[in-house]
């Protein structure tokens, strides 16, 4: 394979600018009694929680296949133990990842991977004729409930820390009035993938009214008023209102980031990425594509100068793959998708499998000693013996459909 010549230069790929949720397949539920019936009910409740987290759908139990599976929850459990939470005996369950994924595929449901957008919450509480911004260390009941419900739905929640930089960047009237520019400016330091603005009006008897706006996407676009928010209002008992708000937020984000399982897929695509300046760029990019939920397998088809072409086998649809790919800020599209099919010319022994297409559309090849797997690093990599072809070696065929051409930009890698 083409990547063999670069392997010894590889560094660990940098993660996407998102949070990794580690407890998607775990649930802890109250166990009010020790009898078998109570434990079975707890197992069913735990499986329901996990399916909601992993699918991103709060109404997943309405699916007929899922509803049937809830009746036999034991087959999905991989580990269990007993614990205590706030003096209440609980059952802690871990579910099998592959079986959960198979169930969601059978149900033609969605799947939301562990890499999830972090949500920065600007919360102003109106109570006792006073309005205050709630900071992370305030031990505020509303803020704690938002964090707990975020954990329940697998949504990484950030509460601003409230240091000097925060309090000088934003004020209570900015948040209560929904002024986008100061909210965007104050949010920049946290680099969230979504911003949730909450105005909470406390009432008597543990009642609350929550008016909220969710901005999902780039914070810079938020500052330029290019992101229209999703809005909602929840009123009633505090715990219920917060849970309903977070359910709505999670459903909105899942609709954007989760991928559809089951049904028809688009098969194999070619993805071309330009401006690969180092071996670190190459392996970072390869790992990033491999880790996409919609991708089954990735192979470097050819490397030519600073241009790399991958063949990608999909688990989901092409639209889902394109959407996932576009969410990484290091990639920018440089051309519209094209449809083309051709075979690279057979190459004699001593040639590396690296072809290119000239402006006339004819395939061209370069001798192995002229091909640089990664621009600017040829002097450090000997590729003279890399993947030579025999006279009877099979000729690879390029995938029929090319998804798009992208340009790569990784400032961290460039600095190295």
Could you describe the 3D structure shown?
This protein has helices at about 35-55, 65-70, 95-105, 140-155, 165-170, 170-175, 180-185, 220-225, 240-255, 280-290, 320-325, 410-415, and strands spanning about 20, 25-30, 75-85, 90-95, 110, 115, 120-125, 130-135, 155-160, 195-200, 205-215, 230-235, 260, 270-275, 295-305, 305-315, 330-335, 340, 355, 365, 400-410. With about 425 residues, the chain is an alpha+beta fold. The protein folds into three domains: about 1-15 and about 265-415, no CATH class; about 25-95, no CATH class; about 115-255, 3-Layer(aba) Sandwich (Rossmann fold). It starts with 18 loop residues before the first strand and ends with a helix.
Strand content: 25-35%
Strand count, sense and barrel status of the largest sheet are: 6 strands, mixed
From the spread of the alpha carbons, the general shape counts as flat
Helical content class: 25-40%
How far is it from the N-terminal to the C-terminal residue, by CA? 26 Å
Q: How many structural domains can be distinguished in the coordinates?
A: 3
User: What Rg, in angstroms, do the CA atoms define?
Assistant: 26 Å
Taking all residues together, what is the mean pLDDT?
78
- What's the β-strand tally? 21
Organism: Photobacterium pectinilyticum
InterPro entries: DUF2066
Signal peptide: 1-18
Biased composition (Polar residues): 357-369
Short description:
29% of the residues lie in helices and 28% in strands. It has 416 residues and is α+β, with helices and mostly antiparallel strands. The strands form six sheets. Strands 7, 8, 9, 10, 11 and 12 form a six-stranded mixed β-sheet that branches. Strands 14, 15, 16, 17, 18 and 21 form a six-stranded mixed β-sheet that branches.
């Amino acid at each position: 394979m083409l990547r063999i010549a670069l392997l010894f230069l590889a560094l660990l790929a940098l993660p996407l600018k998102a949070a990794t949720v580690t407890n998607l397949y775990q649930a802890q539920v109250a166990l009010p009694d020790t009898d078998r019936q109570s434990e079975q009910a707890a197992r069913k409740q735990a499986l329901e929680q996990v399916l909601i987290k992993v699918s991103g759908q709060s109404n997943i139990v309405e699916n007929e296949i899922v509803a049937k599976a809830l009746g036999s929850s034991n087959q999905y459990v991989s580990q269990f133990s007993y614990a205590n939470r706030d003096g209440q005996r609980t059952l802690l369950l871990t579910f099998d990842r592959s079986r959960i994924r198979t169930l969601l595929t059978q149900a033609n449901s969605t799947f939301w991977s562990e890499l999830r957008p972090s949500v920065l919450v600007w919360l102003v509480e109106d109570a006792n004729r006073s309005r205050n911004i709630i900071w992370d260390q305030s031990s505020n009941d509303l803020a704690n409930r938002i964090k707990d419900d975020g954990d329940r739905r697998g949504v990484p929640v950030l509460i601003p820390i409230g240091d000097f930089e925060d309090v000088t960047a934003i004020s209570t009237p900015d948040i209560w009035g929904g002024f986008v520019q100061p909210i965007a400016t104050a949010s920049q330091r946290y680099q969230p993938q979504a911003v949730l603005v909450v105005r909470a009006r406390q009432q008597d008897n543990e009642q609350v009214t929550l008016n909220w706006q969710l901005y999902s996407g780039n914070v810079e676009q938020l500052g330029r008023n290019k992101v229209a928010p999703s809005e909602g209002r929840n009123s009633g008992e505090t715990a219920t209102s917060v849970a309903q708000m977070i359910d709505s937020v999670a459903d909105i984000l899942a609709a954007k980031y989760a991928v559809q399982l089951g049904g028809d897929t688009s098969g194999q695509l070619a993805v071309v990425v330009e401006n690969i300046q180092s071996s670190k760029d190459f392996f970072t990019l390869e790992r990033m594509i491999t880790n996409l939920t919609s991708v089954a397998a990735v192979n470097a088809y050819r490397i030519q100068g600073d241009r790399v072409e991958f063949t990608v086998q999909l688990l989901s649809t092409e639209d889902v793959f394109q959407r996932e790919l576009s969410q990484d800020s290091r990639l920018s599209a440089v051309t519209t998708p094209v449809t083309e099919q051709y075979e690279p010319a057979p190459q004699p022994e001593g040639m590396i499998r690296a072809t290119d297409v000239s402006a006339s559309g004819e395939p061209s090849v370069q001798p192995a000693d002229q091909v640089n797997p990664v621009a600017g690093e040829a002097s450090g990599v000997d590729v003279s013996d890399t993947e030579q072809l025999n006279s009877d070696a099979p000729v690879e065929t390029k995938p029929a459909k090319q998804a798009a051409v992208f340009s790569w930009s990784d400032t961290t890698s460039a600095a190295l």
